[in-house]
Amino acid sequence: MPDVPRQGARAAFRRWRARRPFWGGLLLALGGGWILLTEKASLKVVMHIGMQGLAGYLLPTLMALLGLLILFNPSQRLFYSITGMLVSLGTWLTSNLGGFFLGLLLGATGCCLAFGWLPDQEPRVSRRRRRKQPRSAAAAHTGAEGVEGPA
Question: What are 88-107's pLDDT values in tens digits?
Fold first, then answer.
């Protein structure tokens, strides 16, 4: 066995989460789940009503599916987030005012977060690590070393 230290599950999850719009996908999926939980019509009633009743279950299911797709296929996040926003807004009409506004807001917020996520950014440095960094290294990083004010 190599002498490479094993990474814990938490560290592996953090690396996985950092490479995708995690919070956007999670909020979109939670919004769809919330709207599904607020639906109270039985399947018998839904089939009697027709397409309008079916859309009340179809759109939140699609929201949850799009949230999971954002999590597990982040390369297509733009398409999924735009589609998720349209579906979230559609729940306003079909699913109890978008799950009494909460599911609609969760879905819209998640779509905005997923759409705005940039994969090429450097990972953020935590405050703890910034405090531990020596002052000279911080000055060299910002390029402030050797710069003098007007004389």
Answer: 999 998 888 888 899 999 99
